[in-house]
Write a structure and sequence with these properties.
The complex is a heterodimer of chains A (243) and B (231). By secondary structure, chain A is α/β, with parallel strands linked by helices. Chain A is built from 8 helices and 9 strands. Chain A has a single domain, classed as Rossmann fold, CATH 3.40.50. In chain A, strand 6, helix 5 and strand 7 form a beta-alpha-beta unit. Chain A is globular and about 55 Å long. Chain B has 231 residues and is mostly helical. Chain B has one domain: MetI-like (MetI-like fold, Orthogonal Bundle). Helices cover 78% and strands 0% of the residues of chain B. The longest helix of chain B is centred in the middle third of the chain and has 37 residues. Chain B is globular, with a radius of gyration of 20 Å. The chains are: A alpha/beta (243), B mainly alpha (231).
């Protein structure tokens, strides 16, 4: 049994035969997975494979129609110390600093501690000097960094990232990947999705391939991305279209 | 024209009678707008964030009430406050308070309906983020009202514009009593019928200036808010 990484946040997260339908369309079909403490887990797969839905269900933003999700070895509600960064994060119509102040307030950080935490978070994500900028006016890369900072304001033990580098230029992608590496090295369990196999290779400890709402293959990045066991995984890694 | 010259002279000379009317008009309309905002903004936000049976019906009714004919509102308040009405014992009929109540009834649907629409639109935008931050219902409402503040100020100014320009209902419940319930709009109506055009035109000049200032303020607020809109 894995040891909880942070007190009060039970790991692993275990999904057992999880089914999710959006309307009449099945999006997750019997997904069983286990997210252990350690290096980032990266979910890969074509559009519509269920990656984003899986993150939302794990985070408790979407209810599973069937199956069970457990945090730790017993049934738990989703703990407070987890956070999700969306693919297109929405910036509150406030300054950069006020966005962070809001996230800290929502996380229950006392008012007196917030200014120092805001400065520390801005430094951590490389946005120092931008505290007074209106957040909705930031570039795509800056928004992702601010969204990451807002997530880190919750002092998460588990961080879900939904395609954090989608549509970013190489420099912004590099900055985000570096941040993810630092966060993971600090002991935060990162579970993220990506379309970019190179990114998966750079960041992942474990890789999960999803297709049409099912888990096709899971394994260490060094194995799955190099010598996949299944035909679908081989085709996906080779850059062929999975339909 | 001599009438225009006299009107301008009345305004510029600080005519006490004219400015007493202006002060009362502003006091009544600002009080009504404040009351309608305090009641209408939370009501609109609550309606935007709640889901219950009959919600759509309430939204349709609220939108319809934006076009409530002022004389009908005046008549309803008159019946409530008249000596034989349910609130007759309060003795409010033909007082400035009665005019505030009537104008509040006219402005409240405007502010509540515009708040509902604005907050609901913003809620669709913010929902995922606030859910992910585990924000509770009360904080959601205050967050949305605060972040929609620039649009809401425009709604409040629109409400004030309606209150300041209103005449039918406040004649019914205020009685247009000189020095007590006479406002710019009721005075203009009466002075015109009496043929006292300089005073009517002077008040008209002040009223138009006021409406221009309100619109300029709405524009300035909108411009300030654009700073926080998406690039």
């Amino acid at each position: 049994m894995a040891t909880p990484l942070h007190p009060g946040v039970p790991l692993p997260i275990v999904m057992e035969d999880v089914h999710v339908n959006l309307g009449a369309t099945p999006v997750l079909r019997g997904v069983s997975l286990r997210f252990e403490a350690g290096a980032p887990t990266v979910l890969i797969g074509p559009n519509g494979s269920g990656k984003t839905t899986l993150l939302r269900v794990a985070m408790g933003l979407l209810r599973a129609d069937a199956g069970r999700i457990r945090w730790g070895e017993s049934d738990h509600a989703v703990p407070e110390r987890c956070a999700l960064v969306f693919q297109r994060p929405v910036m509150l119509r406030r300054t950069v600093a006020a966005n962070l102040g809001y996230a800290l307030a929502a996380a229950g950080v006392p008012r007196a501690q917030r200014p120092a935490r805001v400065q520390a978070l801005l430094r951590e994500v490389g946005l120092d000097g931008m505290a007074d900028r209106p957040a909705p006016r930031l570039s795509g890369g800056e928004r992702q960094r601010l969204a990451l900072a807002r997530a880190l304001a919750r002092d998460p033990a588990v961080l879900f990232l939904d395609e954090p580098t989608a549509s970013l230029d190489p420099a912004a992608t590099l900055a985000i990947e570096e941040l993810v590496r630092r966060v993971a090295a600090a002991g935060v369990k990162v579970v993220m999705t990506t379309h970019d196999l190179g990114e998966a290779a750079r960041l992942a400890g474990e890789v999960v391939l999803l297709h049409r709402g099912r888990v096709i293959e899971t394994g260490p990045a060094s194995q799955l991305l190099v010598q996949p066991r299944t035909e679908e995984a081989r085709r996906f890694i080779a850059g062929q279209l999975l339909v | 024209m001599p009438g225009e010259a006299s009107a301008l002279q009345l305004v510029l000379s600080g005519d006490p009678a004219l400015y007493a009317i202006v002060r009362l008009s502003l006091a009544v309309s600002l009080s009504a707008t404040l009351l309608a905002t305090l009641l209408g903004a939370p009501l609109g936000a609550l309606l935007a964030l709640s889901r219950f049976r009959g919600r759509q019906l309430i939204i349709v009714m609220l939108n319809a009430l934006m076009g409530l004919p002022p004389v009908v509102a005046g008549l309803a308040v008159y019946l409530l406050l008249s000596r034989s009405g349910p609130l007759g014992s309060l003795g409010l009929l033909f007082t400035p308070q009665a005019m505030v109540i009537t104008q509040t009834l006219l402005v409240l649907p405007i502010i509540a309906a515009l708040t509902r629409q604005t907050v609901e639109d913003l809620w669709h935008e913010y929902r995922d983020e606030l859910d992910a931050m585990d924000v509770g219902p009360l904080r959601r409402m205050t967050t949305l009202l605060w972040d929609a503040r620039f649009s809401l100020v425009t709604a409040v100014l629109a409400g004030f514009g309606r209150a300041a320009a209103e005449v039918g209902s406040i004649i019914i419940v205020g009685g247009n009593i000189e020095g007590f319930t006479r406002t710019m709009t009721t005075a203009i109506a009466m002075e015109t019928s009496k043929g006292n055009l300089p005073l009517a035109m002077g008040l008209g000049l002040v009223l138009i200036t006021l409406i221009l200032v309100v619109n300029a303020a709405a524009w300035a607020v909108r411009r300030a808010g654009q700073r926080f809109e998406h690039a």
